[in-house]
Amino acid sequence: MPSLNVEDRILRQFVALSLLLSFPIQGLAQQPAAKTLSGYTSADSAAELDWEQRFRAIPEASRAHENMRFLAAHPHNVGSEAQRKNAEWMVAKYKEWGWDAHIEQFDVLYPTPKTQMVEMISPTRFKLKLEETPLAEDPYTHEIKTQLPGYNIYSADGDVTGPLIYANYGMLDDYAELERNGISVKGAIVITRYGGGWRGLKPKLAYEHGAIGCIIYSDPADDGYGQNDVLPKGPMRPAAGVQRGSVSDTPLYAGDPLTPGIGSVPGAKRLAIKDAQAIMKIPVLPIGYGDAQPLLAALDGATVPASWRGGLPFTYHFGSGSTKVHMNLQFNWDTKPVLDVIATMKGSTEPDTWIVRGNHYDGWVNGADDPISGQSGLLEEARALGALARQGWRPKRTLIYTAWDGEEPGLLGSTEWAETHAAELNEHAALYVNSDESNRGFFNASGSYQVERVINDVAHDVTDPETHGTIWARQEAGRAVRENGRAGGGRAGAAAGEKDIIPIGALGSGSDFAAFIDHLGITSVNLGFGGEDRGGTYHSAYDTPWYIEHFGDKESLYGKALADTAGTLVMRFADADILPYDFRNLAKTLNGYSGELKALVKQMQHDASVRQHNIDSGFYRLAADPQKKASLPGPLPNPPDLDFSALDDAITSLGASAVEFKSAQDGSGSVSAAKAGKVNGELARAERKFLSPAGLPRRPWVQHILYAPGWYTGYGVKTMPGIREAIEDGRFDEAREQMAIVTAAVLSEASYLASISHELSTN
Amino acid sequence: MPSLNVEDRILRQFVALSLLLSFPIQGLAQQPAAKTLSGYTSADSAAELDWEQRFRAIPEASRAHENMRFLAAHPHNVGSEAQRKNAEWMVAKYKEWGWDAHIEQFDVLYPTPKTQMVEMISPTRFKLKLEETPLAEDPYTHEIKTQLPGYNIYSADGDVTGPLIYANYGMLDDYAELERNGISVKGAIVITRYGGGWRGLKPKLAYEHGAIGCIIYSDPADDGYGQNDVLPKGPMRPAAGVQRGSVSDTPLYAGDPLTPGIGSVPGAKRLAIKDAQAIMKIPVLPIGYGDAQPLLAALDGATVPASWRGGLPFTYHFGSGSTKVHMNLQFNWDTKPVLDVIATMKGSTEPDTWIVRGNHYDGWVNGADDPISGQSGLLEEARALGALARQGWRPKRTLIYTAWDGEEPGLLGSTEWAETHAAELNEHAALYVNSDESNRGFFNASGSYQVERVINDVAHDVTDPETHGTIWARQEAGRAVRENGRAGGGRAGAAAGEKDIIPIGALGSGSDFAAFIDHLGITSVNLGFGGEDRGGTYHSAYDTPWYIEHFGDKESLYGKALADTAGTLVMRFADADILPYDFRNLAKTLNGYSGELKALVKQMQHDASVRQHNIDSGFYRLAADPQKKASLPGPLPNPPDLDFSALDDAITSLGASAVEFKSAQDGSGSVSAAKAGKVNGELARAERKFLSPAGLPRRPWVQHILYAPGWYTGYGVKTMPGIREAIEDGRFDEAREQMAIVTAAVLSEASYLASISHELSTN
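Above: the input entities. Below: the structure tokens describing the complete assembly.
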């Protein structure tokens, strides 16, 4: 809308935002005692609330716990015997509960270790053990024969020897620090600790800086004795504990590295392994701190800065080059089946609008917590919906409940399924509800912002199993106590009309929602509970039912809480007269992103100018210790003033459309079922407007222009990623191009909504 | 000035502060190329600058280094043979350099260990070693027979057995955390780590909470391998290293615990040991982490919070009571001599106005860094002034150069001397210039704020030995780089006229200025250099010349820098026509304190109200983990609105007087020597107006109402301590009483200055 003059623009923006932030939202917040659900007529609302209550009476923690004990009884990674048994068991269960269910198989590249050897060859010689010692107390840990050893899947094969250099968390800032200290990793083997950013970035950045190999270890400061007692006395990672995990470059694309963008079905065109961009170019291996300790202790050279220190009992050094390591990793580059369990319950009146629900069920080893704590709750949710259907309830829309296989290696099961069914999903999917492991504590949710309000509405209706208040009240209490330190806070200070809304987060990656949101633009949410039991078994052989029963959610109380929450959300979408999206929250959030981006530009300009001032003033030279040889800081990227006005105009338009839609939705009581069905189909596709067919720069698979896994954060989200990452990385022309793409998408969403509102308001 | 109406008051304050903050200070900042020193006529200024330059040509780093090697050659604690030899050597040197010099002796209570035993008796039995192992590389560490063992002087005798409880740093907040976890130290032996606050608070707070004994250890995270390599490979504290140190309750009073307020001269009335409030009531012993490790590893019970974790390779626990320790400490409660070296150079025209300069010379063992790195520079300064006098320079005012004995046990030498000469000092002392250890790096200064400008002026004239810029420029660069993280800053953003002023700090305690400023109200400053060599030898047997030559200021470059800086400052005061105080900086600083106190009240009110809101909302109850038994937070103290208007009025008056005085000082070129002498005598006594004869509440010895060691911080300063500590601790009536006292003192200073200005301006 570039032809408006500035005053007009500001005025329009002010009026629209005022509307957005006060009147209509406030109306909703002051719900009467007999509340009417958003998207429901008052009669339908009462019936829905009754069914939801009857639903939540069904899931049982003890049954979720039994599911966990069954599914996590044995190592059940992709391709294992136990995994097939689990899949078949779930299909049988679903059928028993009244669902249609089957296994959908994809054949994917799934390398497993053939040779794994690491040895120090200088200054002394020893081999690493590379074993996760079983615990006498935990019978599950003794099933060694069927365990996958500790490894990073999609590491390269490699037999390399080189000097060892410690690179802290192995993130970009860490390489800048190495450089300031005059240390190159060229030709070196880098040892980094877990944490600070997604694991796959560690070998990737090591490779990009010239390293020939990478070792990732779990430092005891991060999830070992520095946090709490280690197993078996406490819940933390013991010295032998290894964090397995994928190093497939998922910010680039998820799923089978050989089939980006298409399903790994028979006959699919597969890349050669050497051409698969997502596969690492150097060998990389995860180890425990028992194995890491002698390697790190042998490093010499300069002492690392404070933020690089871990919890081992010696001084950490960068390494001078005199410590030499030899590592040899060779893999079986096999194709293995991933077995997705797909169960459906057909919708009564709008069967072509789909609500998809998923949680993976593959574990790195036994995976009792990750992911079975979530999947065992999901199964209770499915059982309860089946039982509810026997009581007479029928969803208007079709439910698709899934158990994804192959999440751990790179979101394989969900991605291959989503890619295979892309056209149908594009046409039919209204919502994807994901969960993963779920633990004792506080509710948390991330997702598309047009679902923010309904998630909060649901959270106001679900009971927390520990406090017997609502999960919303507990979430609010937790935030109040945590965020404000000793004094506390809460939503009391929130803007009028938002006291009952706890902001959700945006979706990055790291679980099965990625293909749905990032690649297909399907409205998605991710739900979970946690925050009370901090453990150190993540992706190790110690994540077993014994661990859960001693240090986790011992009775799977939060398995039931997850079922209650996700099930209620699914029902609310499945049964609504008009799908309960609220785009006002989206517009408000986008307005926030625009503000953040402007602040980012200002901050970078400020930092660059102060940096330049300090350089010009000789401050770095004067302040430097002449006995140390660290190099002096250079200039910082200095962004030009970027023009956000068109973007802001577009967001303002979206805000106005959102207000309009809300009003049409609220007044839609008399629309025919046929029109409602048509409108709901259109609404289901509303998020698709945020897809850019070209994808983000340098990663065409990632097409959502509002949310993406960060190029340099991995799982961590970047919002308005095209613009934000271009600014952060100093590509200012690209930032302008991306801003135009986002602006066009937001405008397109605004007019799409406007036409839906029009359709809904006119008989 | 309570009768003024509000508008008048605000208007006056505004006008005076505007004057203070802009016009006159700005005038000064724009000094012409040929600068005129503050307090000097332009002719005298040129001569002075010339003499100062000639002075700074004399001190030599290599001579400071030789001084260090002599004075730190052997253990030389109070009462040792080496200490008497050092004293006599310095007297001889001073005489050789042309000074009058003598030893002034005080006989003080100086307990030394007779029996020291600590053993664990449950769950297993072992004795601690309590030995500081000599280093093969460092010959000095082998002189064990003359070393004092590791101990905390003024510990009580005691033979106690009890459960061991870990209390982190042993500060007030730590006891609150213990209480929240349901843990009492009643009847227990508390083990705390060094750091977080002054060591003497650790046994004091342990005792006040019911403990029967206290162990203080050096955690490797704080000054051991967690920071850098330990000795002999690096500079940090090895496992056997013990931090000795006084636990005399110096925030209460400094000096000989048996003679508070009076000199320990023959015939002085001494308290019985049991009546000496400064002596600890329970036994307390410092140990190294080698000895602490098995004690801490044996603790069980709940895991400590994150901020309590140290660097030992296990999980830290509070202790459940099952770990039992027996400690037996017995001391020889002897009287020992402290030998102050006192050297004087008589003033030519105003001999009755004194500039006192001091640095202690007693060490806990060899004390090469603490304090000899400072004392060895001071001696070069004295030699240079002697040589300058031979070139024809004579100070107008009398210089008193000192080497204090007995600083380590509790500022004994300086305090007993100050108390003995209290009446003369009250009459004559214009300035006390203190230093202590001095290391490589950045200049830092603390002191009375009327000296802030002249300290900055001097720092603009002294050359930094590493960068060859000025020490001011380097200090500015260091602050710019440190304070602003990666981006940096500097004084460029400072208010107009203050770009050449780096704020000094306020004086707390922990070195020999305490009696001068806190007890006698003598204008004081403390100068030093540091920040480049972080070591871990503090108060251990490893603080030797070998350590300095391997890990410290290897060539004593900063011994010379200290001599240059302090000597220039002394000369500038000794030679001035009118003493170069600038009270505008004081008024501005007091205005800042008043603002801080108002903000403190507001913050406490806010915290109390949010806390209450959270309690009322049930947030703590809802957020609590039901599987943990920590108690929920209770209400916080909620201060009433305190009326700062009278205090602000008084500060405004002081600001106006300060401006007036500056103008009189600048225009004083034609006053007679007699009048100048009289005015300078009066000016020297100006700081005495800030003494309250009754002292601070519960500590009559501490009489300065602007600066004091904090009751709960020890060395750390509290400014406007009577008001601030009363507010912090919830004694709001006392805060009002103390505000009246401060207000009266500030008003009294304002009129005192006004009358001096009047005297100076009228012929």
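Note for the figure: Residues 1-7, 14-32 of chain B have pLDDT under 50 and may be disordered.
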